[in-house]
Amino acid sequence: MKKILVVSSNSIHLFNFYNLINSYFDHIDIVTDSINEKYNYRNIVLYKYNFSIKKPFQFIISYFKLKKLIKTNKYSIIHIQQITTAALLAILASKKSKIPIVATAWGSDILLISHRGYFYKKLVKYVLKNVDIVTADSEFVIQEMNKLTKQNIDAHLVILTNLHSTPKYFPKKSKIIYSNRLLTPLYRIDLIINAFEKFIKDKQYEEWKLIIAGQGNERHKLEKIVREKKLQNQIEFVGWQSTDKNNEYYQKALIYISIPISDGTPTSLLEAMSYGCIPIVSDLPVYYEWIENNVNGLIVNDLNSNFIEKALKLNPIKVWEINRNIIEKKATIDVNKSKLEQIYNKLLQTK
Asked: Tell me: the pLDDT tens digits for 254-289?
């Protein structure tokens, strides 16, 4: 019997990962720090443990609970999602078990968390050096992990995707621009609003709408900016969206925008590419793995320019044809499920 223990914070990334592995394993247990009823894990037991080292007493309790869980269940593999204190907890609790461990970097853990200070840098390095295999969603993140550890770790490119396939036909588009990243400073939604304001000053674009999905601690601030600019009729905040509703917006939107300060490979970018949105992204190394500037999307160097208008110069059908081919080759569930199964087979054969 193949049994896996997954240790992860509870988010869309965990849910996508679960859908990649659920047909491979006979038994799956998930240890997480919160229960999110948005995600249906179909009769899988979720154990809620504290991952925060800022609560040392609870962290120690979690350590002993996790150690007991590992000893009792004799898992074939432990897979950690995101290299944070949750990963540290899992490694410490499984120290004497000799169970193979896989860790998946989400991007922010390597590109941001490891730079927060001495402790977090040491934590990330410790995790990377104490697991058997690491996966990441971009070559850039893998390069950064090698720099951090000063060695070539056993790392594999795997995308935590929910894409079964791409649409067969180019969707019917509307005059909609779609942004669905978190409403936090990292994602610079305020700059997207400024860019949209600049774009619609030209009367030929005044019928366009900007749809902002997602939640975050800047929502009220961003809504205030929109009110002050008197753009309430053209900018709509729609909050968190279900998968079906999210896909509806991708189908309608001609343009997708994501201009964060730092990023791994965002699932939303891949979804937007598959549905024929022209992607506009910030000038970050990871985006060059998916976008060739002015060919299948726009990579923005000057965020004060009228970059939305510039994106409209691209032929949307040609952009979609290129992106559809990229997604089919690199980012579907079948492609990445196969990659994970090869990793697990390798570990189970050498166990």
From this structure: 999 999 999 989 999 999 999 999 999 999 999 999
Question: What SS3 state is found at 187?
Answer: helix
**Residues 65/49, Cβ–Cβ less than 8 Å:** yes
**Cα(81)–Cα(106) distance, rounded to whole angstroms?**
8
SS3 annotation, 148-186: HHCCCCCEEECCCCCCCCCCCCCCCCEEEEEECCCCCHH
Radius of gyration of the chain (CA): 21
Of 235, 151, 251, 240, residue with least CA distance to 199: 235
- Candidates 1.10.3980.10, 3.40.50.2000, 3.40.30.120, 3.30.1330.60; correct CATH number of 3-162+332-350? 3.40.50.2000
**pTM of the predicted structure, to 2 decimals:** 0.89
C-alpha closest to that of 224 among 209, 235, 239, 211: 235
- 199 burial level (CB within 10 Å; 0-12, 13-18, 19+): buried
